[in-house]
Amino acid sequence: MNEFATIKRPKAALAMHPHLPDRLFSRQVRHDLDAMLQLHPIPITQEIATDADLEELELLIGGWGCPLLDERTLSRMPQLRAVIYTAGSVKGFATDELFRRGIAVTSGVDFNALPVAEYTLAAILMSGKRVFELAGVYRTTKQFRPFEEEPDYWGNYGLKVGIVGASRIGRRVIELLAPFDVDPVFYDPFVTHEIVGARPVTLDKLLRTSDVVSLHAPAIPETFHMIDSAALSLMRSGTTLINTARGSLVDSDALLAELDSGRLNAVLDVTDPDPLPRHSPLFEAPNLLLTPHISGSQGNELRRLGDAAFREVSRFVAERPLLGTVKPEILSYSA
Q1: Is the pLDDT confidence value at 19 over 50?
Q2: What is the number of alpha carbons within 13 Å of residue 282 lying toward its C-beta?
Q3: Which of 23, 177, 179, 317 is the most exposed place for a label (fewest CB within 10 A)?
């Protein structure tokens, strides 16, 4: 007997790019979703939301490509009770109207935070060993350990790591750093107390004293170009800047000048704009590891997001409290 046969099957729809369901959900999970829900036959996107019959939908399972859920769209979904979002930030689709109607919104942000934190951890440890810097010079000069003068720090014992933003990802990075002999500090204007594994400092002190600075702040007006020429000038020669958050946090021109001079190093997974135009000088910048916004969930990591969303759907169908609920007030200061 089907284990879901006695459960009322709410009407639901996937709200995401059409190619995503096969990447998010295993065959078994998709089978179970079909058993638990009366699923709309095709994913709902911004382009077809105006044509689809949405009146009886009680649940949306969202992902990248989810349509904007404004008053116009929501008026066509009078039965909607919840949006379970498989990815991280809900800013792309969530509106005040969505929360005003009392519709529950959940996010997979905690699960998407893990691969970003893993990427950051790897970048921090590789930066401490001067891997990116040495690899480029070694390839070019073919000179073994090609330092003209050995740097003051070269390794991860006692490495001073500055985390800008005690966000979910920032805190996850601090957790992942725990087994290593490094010295983490953090700056966050919303968090002034010590958190497990790191102590709070001012932004100026963090920039002046860190060997590696990793950005995990949201893109809001207050953080636009927070790492500008003045901030970069505070960093000691040889410091590595890592950005896996949002490109707008960094003044690219100011950073480019520091990279060209050889004073600083950087690892950028996000840029402004993102993606970069083909003629961007960052592609030719020295002392820079540039990756195409890959630190978030990719490939088989998407299944983690799909599995987490499935667990939330199971709770929704069983009328149990949802776990990843998003509060509307965090939208003003979240990524």
Answers
A1: yes
A2: 27
A3: 179
Same domain (yes/no): 101, 120: no
State the Cα–Cα distance between residues 163 and 285, nearest whole angstrom.
24
Q: What is the mean pLDDT of residues 220-236?
A: 97
Whether residues 32 and 164 fall in one domain: no
Point out which residues pair with 163 in neighbouring strands.
Answer: 186, 214
Average pLDDT rounded to a whole number, residues 64-88: 94
Please indicate, yes or no, whether residues 34 and 178 belong to a single structural domain of this protein.
Answer: no
- For residue 59, the enclosing domain spans 11-107+299-332
Q: What's the rounded Cα separation, in Å, for the pair 106 and 85? A: 6
Average pLDDT over the chain, rounded to an integer: 92
Handedness of CA 42, 48, 53, 55 (dihedral sign): positive
Would you call 52 exposed, middle or buried from its count of C-beta atoms within 10 A (0-12, 13-18, 19+)? middle
CATH code, domain with 283: 3.40.50.720
In a domain, 1, yes or no: no
pLDDT for residue 1 is more than 60: no
Q: Same domain for 259 and 126?
A: yes
What residues contact residue 6 under an 8 Å CB cut-off, 6+ apart?
none
- Reported as a single tens digit per residue, the pLDDT across 102-131 is 999 999 999 999 999 999 999 999 999 999
